[in-house]
Specification:
There is one protein chain. By secondary structure, this protein is of the alpha+beta class. It is built from four helices and 20 strands. It has a six-stranded antiparallel beta barrel. Strands 3-10-8-5 form a four-stranded antiparallel beta sheet, with no helix packed on it.
């Protein structure tokens, strides 16, 4: 009997140990360790900006054409050639215009000869008219003939000047100092200027100065002003940022698929000649910039201590800046104010004794990433932006299944980012 009783006792003790182990390792709620993420206010630049896309182009581009028709005889420049003002670019075959000039010059000599004859005839008729040898009608005819001859000389002289000018236009000269961007003709090609002036060359005046033709959405154009700072990148140099400034906001809108955009010109330095005409630019225009101001991350104003934080840290009075207030139950508290305006916010700071306290601050510019702090904080304050949970995985324990639900406010590397958590103080 004693042996049987001892066996039952062993079984009972063994069962209790097994149940205790099961509870300890599998059933009991494991303690969650958390670590607060903090930052200190910093001094620096804060800005609001808008984004747009555009095309890089030279500041001044001249299309060189021809006013006369003909066959391209010679071309003296090519793509990317550097030219000076007055430099010969190309010539047209001048033979046809030369022949026309010579023909008109012959007509002019004939008109001058006719004028000389009519001058002699008019002088003779004048002398005869004075002595009554000819009638007034004969005198008037001679006078009309000399006037017509003079007009004919003037007319042919004008035609000759036009022919000589057209002949000189067979030489195409550069109107500016610059670089040839495009050549549209080749030697032997016929160009006709009957209806419009054909473009032979496109010349960029100065490639060390470029401009970006940006399309800014109508929702953003109200904040864009001349002189504002702009930065942009191009696909050719994705890791390099180029600087510029807004030089013009054009009033004529462009509409595409019911989207209204306004053309905004941005001047940029291109001394390095890295920027090429036609490149696509991704542009940031800084509509408001403040320098040397105190700023904090925007996430700091969204943090709210939840039940995990309240359990691990001592929460001071939830009322602002040292004003005492009553705590409720498990540490829940009242809101700082139900009438906070847009220039006020609250952050939580942690002290050396691990006590977290709420502070009311006055804010300025907010770009959704950083917030300007006008007053309410010191540069040594440790501001809480969130927290992360320290699971057993981080200390060498078993890994959690990714399919298991996580506790609110917890999880590996997951911080509190503005949630109300377990109803902690606001």
């Amino acid at each position: 009997m004693k042996t049987k009783n001892k066996k039952w006792l062993y079984w009972i003790v063994g069962g209790i140990i097994v149940l205790g182990a099961v509870w300890y390792f599998f059933i009991r709620e494991k303690e969650v360790k958390i670590q607060l993420e903090t930052v200190q206010p910093e001094m620096g630049e804060i800005s609001n900006s808008i984004t747009a896309t555009g095309t890089v182009q030279p500041v001044d581009t001249v299309a060189v054409g021809t006013q006369v028709s003909g066959i391209i005889k010679n071309i003296y420049v090519d793509f990317n050639s550097t030219v000076k003002k007055g430099e010969l670019l190309a010539t047209l075959d001048p033979d046809l215009l030369q022949y026309q000039t010579e023909q008109i010059n012959a007509n002019l000599q004939n008109a001058k000869s006719n004028l000389s004859y009519n001058e002699i005839n008019f002088n003779r008729q004048t002398q005869l008219y004075k002595v009554g040898a000819v009638s007034k009608a004969d005198y008037d005819v001679a006078q009309n003939q000399i006037n017509a001859a003079r007009a004919q000389v003037n007319s042919v002289s004008a035609q000759l000047s036009t022919a000589k000018k057209n002949l000189s236009l067979t030489n195409i000269y550069s109107p500016i100092d610059g670089t040839i961007l495009n050549r549209n003709v080749s030697e032997g090609q016929t160009v006709a200027s009957s209806f419009s002036t054909p473009t032979l060359f496109s010349i960029a005046k100065d490639l060390t100065k470029m401009q970006i033709r940006a399309s800014v959405d109508e929702a953003d154009i109200g904040n864009v002003k001349i002189g504002q700072k702009a930065t942009f990148t191009v696909d050719a140099f994705p890791d390099e940022t180029f600087n510029g400034s807004v030089s013009e906001v054009r009033l004529q809108p462009t509409v595409s698929s019911n989207v209204v955009n306004y053309t905004t010109m941005i001047n940029a330095d291109n001394s390095s000649l890295k920027l090429k005409p036609g490149m696509t630019a991704n542009i940031t225009i800084y509509t408001e910039v403040l320098n040397n101001v105190m700023k904090i991350p925007a996430a700091a104003t969204s943090f709210r201590p939840d039940s995990l934080v309240i359990k691990k840290y001592k929460v001071a009075s939830p009322f602002a800046n040292g004003k005492k207030g009553k705590r409720k139950g498990n540490g829940q508290g009242k809101n700082l104010s139900t009438n906070e305006n847009k220039n006020e916010a609250a952050v939580w700071i942690i002290g050396k004794d691990s006590t977290i306290t709420r502070k009311k601050i006055k804010t300025g510019m907010d770009n959704d990433t950083e917030i300007q702090v006008i007053s309410g904080l010191n540069k040594n304050d440790n501001i809480i932006t969130g927290y992360k949970s320290l699971s057993k995985k981080s200390s060498g324990g078993a890994a959690k299944s990714p399919f298991m639900p996580q506790r609110r406010g917890g999880g590996n590397g997951g911080g509190n980012r503005g949630g109300t958590g377990g109803g902690g103080p606001r």
